[in-house]
Amino acid sequence: MSTWNSDELDRIATADELRVAPRRSDGTFRRPTTIWVVRDRDDLYVRSWRGVQGSWWRTAHDTHEGRISAGGVDAEVPFVEVTDPRVNDQVDAAYRTKYGHYSGYVEPMVADDARATTLRLTPRS
Question: pTM of the predicted model, to two decimals?
């Protein structure tokens, strides 16, 4: 598995928003959707605010591939599903720390519906 270099990791993690374009089953990319991204140690994570009903997430879940853009970094990525409750707890904390000033929006991002959609972003090797 590839890892982000420190510059990419910092630039993506400090960006307020990330644009995600999951690859469809026919190989084309969906139109980019603007979402939040958080960092825990050397990993980057995203979630669907709408839970499993989020259309970008459903495509990402089906193909596990896509393209992201944030902080001046553009990369193709595999989407790795996260099911470990401890990792999800750390991702919750990262969302609260980074986006806590958006009180009406951060709570849905740490609710069970959104936790069920947690994806780790790794650079394509």
Answer: 0.95
